[in-house]
Every structure is written in C-alpha cells, then in structure tokens.
C-alpha cells in the first residue's frame, strides 16, 4: 500500500502539570510513557509535513434513490432512478454543509475539488464548494446552470473558486443499479460548464454493466489506487465528493494499525452530506514536492559534532 490515512494528534503539556507516572497510564493511551525496563513503542504516527495532505471527504447529499431505496430496496433496480439527482431535502443538506465549510474556513483553504461524475455528486460538489449565484457579464464560467438535474436552483458561479475535476475512479459500486450509471459527459458539460471532465476517457458510461455488480474487494482496490493518485497531486488541501460504498470500502483498507475507536472514526459509514477531514500520508515517495518549511541549518557553516555522536566514538 502506497499511502496511509491518519488523523493528526497534538499533545499539549503544561509547564505546571507534572508528567503522570508510567504505572498509572494504560498502554492503550496515546500519551503512554514507558518505564526504564520497557522498550519505547510510539502509538502516534510521525511523518514529514511535506508528505502529508489534508483531504476533506464528503458523501453526496440525499438523492431520490436513497428515499425510494429506503422504502423498498428493490427500487435500486429501477430505471426510473437512472443517474439519481438530489431531493429538495438533499439541497437543504448541501446548504447546511456549505455554511459549515465557510464558517470553519475550509472553503477558503481548498485548492482542488475532486468529484465523482454522477449527477448527485456533481450537484453536491458545486453546491457546497462553488461560488455564489452567477451574474451575466462576469468573466467566470458557470459551475452549474440554473435548474440542472431537476433542481430549482439558480446558476452557480466559478468565480474565485478552486478547480473542479471529475474522476471516474471515485465512483460508487459499478453495475446493476441504474442510479449508479452516469449520463454522457457531453450532457454533463452542458449542465456543469466549469467542471473539468478531461480525465473521463469515454463520453458514454462503458464501466457500468447491467448484469455485473462490482465486488467489494475490487471497489476497495480501486479506492486505494485513487488515494495513491491523490498523493501525487501538487495540491495540499483537497475536497473529494463521492459515495457511501466507495468511502466505506476504501477507508476500511486504512487504519488497521490504529485503536479500534480511531479506525471507526476513519471508516464507519457516512451519512448523507457528511464531511470528514483526514490526513493522507505519502509513505512511498509518490509525490515529489520539496519541503517548504524545513530549514537546512549550518548557515554560516561551523563545527557541530553532537554529544551523542561523540559518545558513540
């Protein structure tokens, strides 16, 4: 596996608070301090900062398929749910998530939005991370045209927003369910002019098969490859708008070296329009960005033999 997901852990030690005794701390505790006769085994992860990215993972808001599927699971086989769009409640969920990402500062830090090329994820992505209402005459293309996908929404501008790019490798389970079959890219380009669809290789959906449902293990492998691809991107803070099954099976490939509670924070099922922020660590040199905060030291140059090295001699 070429990358790992972990959550940042910060330890604050007050200058007036004594360190707890090793005998009083459970080895499960992240601040565990070994006694002299024990081998030090850190329970944190420590990685170079320039090998890390912040990824904001979002499941799409409520779609019409979620409503019909909860009434009757056989509805997922209905052609009426082809490329399911958001419900009015789903758009309310998008509005609330948009308020959250703006209030938390996430919206201004995002450098790239990666989105699965299905209608419900495209709507969620532009509604959450897009600009304000589109104004004629402004030199910025529309992220979404008015009324796109049977919505009552006005056009959404791309003004002062990060790039949006559609990527097929973060799609939902492929096959059988018509709600997971996408429309043509030419149709999406009409509805979402400012989204970059250049990484989608075919106009029509050739990945979805009516009789074959993608296996969980294959979806997980696809998800890990997607994470590897993210690790090669130059952007340091990225939003990914995708699907429940993709998130669940992909994220369950990670966190196996963590406490079960931490793994659950990573990989439990997402609610509609839920956002979780994680750290993606490049452990295998997938990316090539040099560190920007490191400082080489020894300027000007001088003798600097450390005492521990002297002890070794």
From TrEMBL:
InterPro entries: His_Pase_superF_clade-1 (IPR013078), His_PPase_superfam (IPR029033), PGM_Phosphatase (IPR050275). Gene3D superfamilies: Phosphoglycerate mutase-like. Pfam families: His_Phos_1. Residues 291-313 are annotated as: Disordered. Coiled coil: none annotated. Signal peptide: none annotated. May play a role in carbohydrates metabolism. Belongs to the phosphoglycerate mutase family. This is Phosphoglycerate mutase-like protein 2. The lineage of its organism: Eukaryota, Viridiplantae, Streptophyta, Embryophyta, Tracheophyta.
